[in-house]
Write a structure and sequence with these properties.
This protein is an alpha+beta fold and 143 residues long. Helices cover 23% and strands 39% of the residues. It is built from three helices and six strands. The protein starts with 12 loop residues before the first helix and ends with a strand.
Amino acid sequence: MTENSEATPTTDGMEYVRARGAGALAEKMGITITEFSLERAVATMPVEGNTQPAMLMHGGAYVVLGETLGSMSANLYAGHERLAVGIDINATHTASATEGVVTGVCTPIHLGRSLTVHEIVITNEQGRRCSTVRITNLIKDRS
């Protein structure tokens, strides 16, 4: 992981989450952020209400959880003077959640001057990996 000394947050991670929120979509999907720092962000999301017709967790729901964590992490890293915007996201689904909650754990792969890359591993309550999401964000000046 590379570091950008120019992009330093002015608040701690959970203070940042309380001040900014996770967004309307995250709220509708029941996403709860439980840990948030530059090194690691964790959130949960209920399966119920986020399923496809076969009653499995919807693949798009995994992506929403991943993008919520990855984009918010990139914006914490970018600091107040800059803005991180998603430019690429992909997901590989390897198992299905059918009940309870899933947990996403976001860690940085690359923190650079203009790009960040985060990996989000999403597991079910049994600890089985259900989806792996990777998001790349562009950091730009706010204007």
